[in-house]
């Protein structure tokens, strides 16, 4: 049986919410090349310099919360996947569009099925 792990957009924000209006506090990582696995321990912000592909290590994502993603690269999307083969909004991967320096995509999860 496969694990179903859905990240959904945080309801109070949209994919077009300017970063300047967001709470930019918390651990931020910058990803500049494709990576096999991203340690998400205590991460609240991820800045991709796409195009690239990244797999989020679900075992380091904790019991729930939200993560803000932005792709400030201009050459193409940043594609994210989850390490345990789960889904993001029902899909096996999710593309963060390029050139989004002033917007963010926010995902919320409850962590009830990360194991």
Set down the secondary structure blueprint.
Elements: E1 8-9, E2 27-31, E3 35-38, E4 43-48, E5 52-56, E6 65-71, E7 78-82, E8 94-96, E9 105-109
Parallel strand pairs: 2-4, 3-5, 4-6, 5-7
Antiparallel strand pairs: 1-9, 6-9, 7-8
Task: Give a short overview.
The protein is mainly β and 115 residues long. 0% of the residues lie in helices and 37% in strands.
Low-confidence stretches: 1-22
For the record, the count of structural domains works out to: 1
SS strand fraction: 35-45%
Order of helices and strands: EEEEEEEEE
Rg, alpha carbons: 13 Å
The total of beta strands comes to 9
Major beta sheet summary: 5 strands, mixed
Describe what this molecule looks like in 3D.
This protein is an all-beta fold and 115 residues long. The protein has one domain. Helices cover 0% and strands 37% of the residues. The protein has no helices and nine strands. Strands 1-9-6-4-2 form a five-stranded mixed beta sheet, with no helix packed on it. The protein is globular and about 35 Å long. It starts with 7 loop residues before the first strand and ends in a 6-residue tail after the last strand. Mean pLDDT is 75; it is low at 1-22.
Name some characteristics of this structure.
single chain, mainly beta, disordered N terminus
């Amino acid at each position: 049986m496969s694990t179903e792990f859905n990240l959904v957009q945080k309801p109070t924000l949209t994919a077009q919410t300017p970063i300047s209006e967001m709470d930019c506090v918390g651990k931020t990582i910058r990803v500049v090349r494709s990576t096999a696995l991203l340690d998400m321990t205590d991460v609240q912000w991820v800045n991709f310099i796409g195009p690239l592909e990244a797999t989020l290590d679900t075992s380091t994502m904790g019991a729930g919360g939200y993560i803000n993603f932005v792709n400030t690269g201009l050459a193409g999307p940043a594609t994210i996947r989850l390490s345990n083969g789960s889904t993001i909004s029902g899909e096996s991967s999710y593309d963060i569009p390029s050139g989004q320096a002033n917007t963010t995509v926010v995902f919320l999860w409850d962590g009830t099925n990360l194991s």
